[in-house]
Amino acid sequence: MNAHRNILIGAGILLSQSIVLRAVTINVPADAPTLGHAMNIAEHGDEIVLANGTYTGSDNEFIHFNGLAVTIRSASGDPSTCVIGMEDENEVIFRFSNYETRLSRLEDLTIHGRVEIGRFSRSGDPTIVGCVFQGDYASIDIDDGSRPLISDCLFIDNQQGSTIWIEEGSSPHILHCRFL
């Protein structure tokens, strides 16, 4: 009986060690040339760190999280030094629509474009912290029962419409944000 128990315990230890997540940091552009490329190689728990600069073009827009628990943040922690998208273009920059949790994060970025949360009857509950949404089309669209946490963000210079659009059934948590 003890031998059988020891085999089961040993098998359990091996199994538990084989599924341990090994989160990595992907530096853009040092490890991946674009934000899109970084997301394509990212796995659950990874962190994508953007060097100071402006990220535009098709491989830096329409970034789907696809359910991954990934953090995308600026290297400096200063959103003014890390800009994504072109001001006054109505482009989707990020999409959370595959049941993302609070572990899917955007931190300390300036975003010139839209962030879509919840689409196609699939909600997303990401965390967006310390970001600046700047320009006429910079907004967050929340749909499909999504419950994102949006904290310490600045919404500035949007003359074209809503900075946060909330569809019926969604319940975002918006804390300490400023709208100028």
Order of H and E elements: HEHEEEEEEEEEEEEEEEEE
**How is the main sheet built?**
7 strands, parallel
Number of helices: 2
Structural class: alpha/beta
Work out the number of β strands.
Answer: 18
Which strand-content bin applies to the residues? 25-35%
Average pLDDT rating? 88
Strand order of the largest sheet: 1-2-5-8-11-14-17
Cα separation of the termini: 71 Å
Written description of the protein model:
It contains 2 helices and 18 strands. It is α/β, with parallel strands linked by helices. The chain has one domain (23-179). Helix 2 (35-41) links the parallel strand 1 (25-28) and strand 2 (47-50).
Q: Topology, please?
A:
Layout: H1 2-18, E1 25-28, H2 35-41, E2 47-50, E3 53-55, E4 63-64, E5 71-74, E6 82-84, E7 92-96, E8 105-107, E9 110-111, E10 114-117, E11 127-129, E12 132-134, E13 139-142, E14 149-151, E15 154-156, E16 164-166, E17 173-175, E18 178-179
Parallel strand pairs: 1-2, 2-5, 3-6, 4-7, 5-8, 6-9, 7-10, 8-11, 9-12, 10-13, 11-14, 12-15, 13-16, 14-17, 15-18
Protein traits:
180 residues; alpha/beta; seven-stranded parallel sheet; six-stranded parallel sheet; 32% strand; globular
In short:
By secondary structure, the chain is an alpha/beta fold. The protein is 13% helix and 32% strand.
